[in-house]
Each structure stands twice: as C-alpha cells, then as structure tokens.
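Homework help board

Subject: predicted structure for assignment chain

Our instructor gave us this sequence and asked us to write out the predicted structure in token form, then describe one feature. I got the tokens but I'm not sure how to describe them. Can anyone check?
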Amino acid sequence: MRGDPTRTVPDLLDRSPLETIPDLPVVPPRGDARRTLYRYAGLIIAIDVLVVARDLWAAQIVLLPLLFTVPGLLLLRALRVPGTSIAAFPLYVPTASVMTLLASGLAVNFVGPVVGVDAPLRALPLLVGLQFVLGGLLLAGARAPDATFLDWKDLPGTAWLLLPPLVPLLAAIGALRLNTGHDNTIAVVSIVVCLLLLVVSTASADRMTHGQLSIMLVAVALAMMWSFSLRSELVYGFDIATEYGQARRTYLAGVWEADHSTDAYGAMLSITLMPAQLHALTGMSEVVVLKLVYPILFALFPVGVFRLADRFLPTRWAYLAATYALVQGGIFQQLPALARQEIALLLFAAVLGAVFDHRVSGRQRAALIAVFAPGMIISHYSTAYLAAAVFAGALVMQGVVSVVKRKRAVNLAVLAAFVASLGAGVVWYGFVTHSASNLSQFSGSISAGGLKLLPNADGGNIISGYLKGTETSGISVADYQVRIDEQYTRYRKYVEPFEDAGEEKYELKAKPADRPPVLVPALRGVLNLGELLAQQLGNLLALLGALFVVFRRKSPGAIRVVGLLAVPALLMLMLFRVSGTFASAYNQGRAQLQVMILLVVPLFWVLYKLVQRLHRFNREDDELFLDRLFRTTSALALLTIFLNTTGFVGAFFGGGTSTNLTAKGEDFTRFYMREPELAGARWMGPRVARKELVYADRYATLRIYAETTITDQLHADITPRTLHQTGWIYASHANVVDGRVRSLVDNKLTIYAFPELFVDDHYNKVYANGYSAVYRR
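My token output:
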C-alpha cells in the first residue's frame, strides 16, 4: 500500500518511482451483478423524482451529486473500465458524467425541433433524453465483467466525507458576510483553516490514505474558489460576465443554435448548453451553476494532479506536487471566473489520466480518450488548441528520440490523444459551429505585427522583460491618448469626434487608484519576488527533469512519455511569456495552469531523485532526515506562496488585497458587480439600436456583457477625442462615484478621470440611480 509508514526510506529510495508504486489489486472484490443493476436502476428513478421536486432546495442538494456520478459510472461500466482504474483515478467519474450530460443534452437539442419541440432545453425534454441515454448505458453494462465492480468500502469514513462541505461552507459564509457589509473575520479564519489543513496533510501524508489526501485537496480548493466566486451580486470576474450572458440567453431561447461563425463563445457547450441544462434539470439558476456548481467540479482538478503524479512518485512526493499546483493563485481567483476553462481542464486531466492508465487495455484506453478529448474541444477552444499543440510536440519529440536511440519510440496513447483532439476540433470548429475565425485572426495578428517579443522589457532589459512576461502593465495617460488616437484614426475611421474635443479644458487628467500603503515594503517585495522566482525555478527544474527522463537510457517508459509531453508544454509556456501576440490569444497565467498537471511530475521527480542521490553519501540514519528536510523545505515554500496568492499577506501587511478579503481596492472595484449597476445596463440594453455605438470603460463593459446582447458596437475608450457624435455612454459605479475610467491599449492599462465636463456638455443623461448612469446623444 502506498504511503505505508512501515516502509523505510532506503526501501523507497533504492527503487525507481514506478517500482515504488505497486498496482492496486488486479482482481477486485466480486460483486453481485444483478444487485448492482438494481441499484443503478433505483438511482435513475431517484433522478426522475428529484427533477420533479427540483423547486425544493433539499431535492437540489441530493440531485446535484447524482447527476455528476450516476451517468459517469454507467458510462464507465458500459466501456468496461475496471473498478481499480476508477478507484485509482476518481476524476473519471465526474468527467464521464459531464460527457454523458452533454451528449444527451445535445441530442435533445437537435432532435427536439424535428419532433415538434420548439424549446428542447426545458426540464421535461431534457429529462426524457437523459433517461433514454442512462437506460441505454444501463443495458450496455448489464453483462459487464466483475472487474468493473467498484468497491465503495474503500471510501474514507463519514467524518472525512464531512470535510469537503464544512470547510468550503466556512469560506462561503465569509464571502457572503462581506457581500452584506460585514468585516472579513470569517473569511480570514477560513484561510487559516485551509492553511492548517495543508500543513497537517503535508506533514502526515505517509500516514494518510489516498482518499483522505484527496479530500484534503478538495476541501482547500473548493473553499478558496468559493471565497472568490461567491463575491459580487451577480458573478465575479472578467470572462464569466460574458459566459453568464451566454448561458442565460441560451436558456431563454430554449435551444442552442449550432452556427456561431461570428461568436466563438457561443460555440462552447460548457457555457451555453450545459448551464442551461443544469438550470432546467436542477432548478438552480445560471448564476448558482457558474458561481457554486462549477467550482465544486473544478475542486477535483488537484485530485487529478495528485493521482497522476502518484503513478510516478511516492505518495508523499505526489501530494507535494499536487499542493504545488493547488497554491498557484490562478486556481483560486482566475479559474472560478473562467467557467469554460474549468470544465475543459477537468477533461484535459481525464485525457492525461487515460493516456497513463496502465490498468486498462489498449482498447479501453482508446475509448476513454475518444470520450474525453472531444469534450475538451467543445468546452474551450484555447485549452483545446494548447492540448493539441502539446500532443503534436510530444509526437515530434518521440521522432527525435527514435532517431537518437535508433528504435521506435512512438506512444500510441499520445497519438490517439492527438488524433482525437485534432479530429474533434476540425469537425466541431470547422463543420458544426463554423467558429474557427479566431485562428484566422491569430494568424492575421502574426502577419501584421509579428510575435511582439518581450513587450514589457524596460529599456531593452531582456531579463526584466521575461520576468514581467506578457501580463498587463501600466501606461501614462498622455501615452495612452497618443496610442488610442492612432488606433481610432487607423482602424475606426467611422468614429466622428466632436469639433471641440481637442480643447484644453477637455484634456484627459490622470487619476490613479487609491492604494493603501505597504506596511512592510521589504517583506512584500521579497514575497512577490519569491513567488515569481519559485514559479520560474519550478519551470526550469521541470524542463531539466523532462529532458533528463526523455534521453536517459534507464527511464521507465511511462515517465519518459511524461517528459515527452512536458518539454513541448514548457516551450509553449515560454512562448506565451515572451510573445505578446501569443499571449493575446491565450493568457500566460491560464496556460501555466493548464500545463501544470504535466510539469509537476518531472519537477518533483527531479527533487525526488536528488534526495535519492544524496542519501548514498550519508549514514543510513541520516536518510530519513534528508527526505524530511527536502519535503519540509518544499512545503514551507508552497505555504508561503499560498499566503501570498490568497491575499492574506496584503490584508495584514498593507498594499491592498484581493476581493476575497476586502470590500474595497482595485480588484474589488473592477470585478464586484452591484445590482444598481446591473439595473442601469438592463435599462439601456433594449433601447440601443443595432448599429449605435456604446461607450463604457474596460470593466463597466462586464455589466453590459452580463445583462445585454450588446457586443460588437462596444467601445472601451471614454475620451473626448474618441467619443462619436451620436451614441450611448454607460457609466458604472467606478465612473459615477469614484470618477475614474480604466482603459486598455496594447495590453497596457491606464486610469484617468471620468470626462464629466465634456460628457455633460455634449450628451444627455437619460438614466441615473446613484450607482450607474446612462448618457445618450
């Protein structure tokens, strides 16, 4: 058993990682096939009853876990996936359930209108379609062999199963109290509890079961994601505002239209069909689905990282690898605001789980890949493109290794993943939704502007430019005005500015955001630099480890395949970091999160092998000390990053913190949506004619995306020299109350005073509620 405390350090260190991890029992406990079928049939009936009673919150609480377990278990049983494989990689169950729900919902969506159902995305048609699919899967798995039996006795005890809801519930209470004007005491306590859980679990990993460690990861991940996602009076974040609008409009339309040649968002079922389907079946609103349900699903992602790393590393090292992935700030703050990527990354993890699953036959592995890869494609195009590029790069690397080693080194599972991803992408984006225009836009950007290498390099400093990456940086108001004037002159010639827009009295004035002072600047600077260096050092060690396992003669085949995938993943990550053009297509932070599941294995494999080497030069009684020293040092570094990325350091040492711990500050101003702001957007939406221009600053547009269908005619530059002589201006709380406008040009942000004098002189205020205003001319 992995993690057995009776096994000595020499026993573990004298073997390769794969040899330290024995398989789970090949022959599972024999189950009563007929009784299993009856149980599944009973669960299917329970889903029917709960859907009928979906207006009751108790029914919703029971129905939700059934929808994300029963369909997946039936599909896996129909595919003859062994129970030991599911137990070793439990992420198969929710991802298979997602695919079953999407398949049934898509079938109902297309078949419904043919048989006279004009609005198929409603509870009754969707339930009928789901029952038809579940019934078919039940029959398909009726003669499944005993190997598919899943022994539920291996689950942790009741006390452990209470941990995932209780810890996130504490974080949820903290977030909701902040929403209603209370202090951040409970929110801070929830972070401290999560920190203690990570400390205890990393220190006790050898004495805990896989199930207990997985529960720890889920509890911390979900608590921290809810601490962000449950803030705001609608949804919290940037992209999720548009995603919510898509989900809401899909449900109201009652049907998902396939043609999205001018709307790439509408082609992603993770933010159109799936939220509408869950809303119809469970009675939960689209807001609840995106803010509450999707984070529950994505909280399983660190478990996928842990279980994948556990195939190559001793349990305690695999858990450290999962913790490293977990404490990256993007998982807490970015992913809950990227619903489409939450689902796509889960499915990407499932694809990798299948690629490295040695407990299934080749045919079963191919079947799993064929199920999960298309799901990733239809969920998020950027995740799909990067995954396909990584698989393609791995195949190229395999060719290089074949030449160097003079023997065939092609891994058929990687080939299957590439073919499935590429084939599904061509069909979905090319023939079904016609939504591949973003690829042509990307190629056009490269042709027009090149790669835009190191856009943030100050004075040509390459090292500084690389460390800063391609994230948004600042720009002065004067430089912003010059750049935006050039862009409007070149690309937006249809805009006709007012004749007096250039008068001195209307000149833009800088109005920087209020930032609290940093109480201990040296500490804050060290923590920020340490986090950046830890991430870059981790990438470097992962690259070295990947290259080592690829070209090392004695590397086991499976770990070599991890290296083959990690090398192109890291090269792509470097490209996103140094190229502004690539970063505009896929944010470097999001790319880092996606490839993290591949990087942690070679990264911690290097550290593990270093300990293995060092113990040979020490007395036998020092070996345990060395192992603990390395793990303790790694754990302290990860916990330090955790305190920084959760906003804990900023809350107590100044400099501002994130929205999970405060009701003020830059992060709060940008992403926290108030109901009166949304009311202003709702009022304006139906009154805007199709070709009228609408002006709103970069973050005010989020309110418009969420509550209206206005997209193409939006302009985010509220300056006298860019305002059209006719049109609309939407002003949010930041514009009306704070008097600031935030605008972006060439991925550089500036903050200037709202041009109230010019707007009042040239536009009519047609709506105001104290938190937002609408102007028209």
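Reply (TA_rk): Your tokens look well-formed. For the description, you could write something like this. The first helix runs from residue 9 to 13. That's the kind of observation they're looking for.
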